[in-house]
Specification:
By secondary structure, this protein is an alpha+beta fold. The protein has 7 helices and 10 strands.
């Protein structure tokens, strides 16, 4: 699909003009699209069941959100094949690193607080985000945070569907790869280390032998990071 191509929903008959590719992951592609005068993000999934899981999660989250995130869910028929998709509100923002580079490193604490609030809402609905990493976080305004790419969202108690090794507690021999609140909070602590100036050291440790990786190494990095040291008692937990 290229710029200018129009996607028409089979059931809801809504039309979306593709502007450009926003991103591509293991479970689908996301495009910036235009629906009339409104900019949206449209995701095509590779697997119908996985995509429906994401749609279900977004519907649950919308019940407690002042602004709906999910705008449409439908199928598109192209070349005789059926492709499931859903449409989200398009979120404008920067990566946490870009935002902090422009506004200052002390914004780590506001970004972190708002990210925890987002995770808490998801956990209350019975899910873990799973693939928590800087690429899946957008920041705007006064440190406002939005999670993007819900492909890794997993019902609590199940094996995590999608993860990135550096943020994964199983990778660091710190616990099972099972969806629960703690799985996301471990990833959150690693993300804070990354944004707190420890990215190079994290990558060095990640290149070590699997049996030598330990959460104790991450605790040492917390003490070495000026930004993370302030909230060390929280991050170490």
């Amino acid at each position: 699909m290229t710029e200018g191509f129009t996607v028409c929903g089979k059931w809801n008959k809504r039309r979306y003009r593709i502007e450009r590719l926003l991103g591509e992951g293991a479970n689908g592609k996301v495009f910036l699209v235009q629906a009339g005068k409104q900019a949206c993000a449209l995701k095509f999934g590779y697997d119908t069941v996985d995509l429906q899981m994401e749609v279900n999660v977004l519907r649950e989250l919308d019940k407690t959100s002042p602004r709906p995130f999910l705008l449409d869910a439908d199928d598109a028929v192209m070349g005789g094949n059926v492709y499931p998709f859903y449409v989200m509100r398009y979120i404008r923002g920067d990566s946490p690193r870009q935002y902090m580079g422009r506004n200052g490193s002390d914004w780590l604490y506001m970004i972190g607080l708002n990210l925890l609030r987002k995770l808490h809402l998801l956990h209350r609905q019975g899910y873990a985000f799973g693939d928590l990493k800087s690429d899946n976080v957008l920041v705007s305004g006064y440190g406002d945070v939005e999670l993007v790419d819900f492909g890794g969202v997993t019902e609590k108690g199940r094996s995590v569907k999608q993860f990135t090794e550096m943020y994964d507690r199983g990778f660091w021999n710190a616990g099972e790869r099972i969806a629960d609140d703690g799985y996301d909070l471990f990833g959150f602590a690693v993300l804070c280390l990354e944004l707190g100036g420890m990215e190079k050291r994290l990558k060095e440790l990640a290149r070590g032998l699997p049996q030598s990786r330990s959460p104790k190494d991450l605790e040492k990095l917390i003490d070495e990071s000026r930004a993370c040291r302030v909230v060390a008692s929280v991050l170490k937990q």
